[in-house]
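Lecture 7, part 2: worked example. A protein chain together with MTE.
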Amino acid sequence: MFYHRRKGWEIDEREATPKALFLSRRAALATGLGAAAALAAPPAMAFWFGGDTPKPEPAAPDPTRDLYPARRNEAYRLDRPVTPQEINAHYNNFYEFGMTKDVSVPVQALRTRPWTLRVDGLVEAPREIGIDDLIRAGALEERLYRHRCVEAWSMAVPWTGFPLKRLVDMAKPLSSAKYVVFETFLDRSIAPGQAAPFYPWPYREGLTMAEAANDLAFLVTGAYGEPLARQHGAPLRLATPWKYGFKSIKSIRRISFASERPKTFWEGLQPAEYGFWANVNPAVPHPRWSQATEEVLGTGERRKTLLFNGYGEFVADLYAGLPNDRLYM
Ligand code: MTE
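Predicted complex, written out as structure tokens:
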């Protein structure tokens, strides 16, 4: 599906390859590695040049299916209709599976069971938790959240999951822990995007301990009253709706507690454009486009973007005493 209606030859600045990335791709192609990849592309690399995608995994029943739909928590209200599931299912960012918006076919190669989450770093005892045990311990609820991408589009999504704070408490972090660091799986055999050398894989994100303890920070295991679809980051993703969508890391394999601020995926790639905080602010433009408004996908409507994506009452206090450390990039 194609929601940015524009003429065939036009390419939106937001979707154009960022200059630094373009240059690093050229650098990669200029090296023997790049040339070899283009001439004799192995299957994973072929994907980037329009080759085959991996074979989808046959669908297996989700062992936690019986938990959905979960009870809705009415504390989280929307100012707009929920985005239809058919639109959301074909308009995603999941670079591990390609740079196009519709990754619904290649993402089927992601095996979501067995799946363990490693919890480590500055904790009393590192541990591995089976995803089904975690989901069953989570006491799932449904929340309607706005979802604002840094590319200036938005959706409204009924996520199912549980507050991140519940996992933080289970992990028993040490008092020296100042940050929570999230990491996606790393497996080039199923995620052809991870063969691209110009990205700092695995996808990594982070929050301060105070942000992670905020009510809004939500670990997502489902959407639209069902277990999470792979393109949304099954079996476990983050939703931090006051921040740009790139903070909402998908398919989390590891959660660590750290004393140092982590270098996050997009920050590692393009520090001038994407920072650690990434709080939504219509008054602070991205270096290459305005953040004042957003395209509400599926409606044809453009709306004014709200500070903290409209969640200021929940989160503004988190940033009150902080110096202006690029809080909105
Ligand atoms: N997580 C991983 N692992 N890989 C990604 O490419 N993209 C991010 C975020 N989480 C991404 C990710 C971006 S840029 C956005 S806008 C959201 O996921 C998109 O979530 P959605 O596809 O469910 O709308």
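The CA atoms of residues 3 and 142 lie 27 Å apart. The two ends are 29 Å apart (CA to CA). Keep this in mind for problem set question 3.
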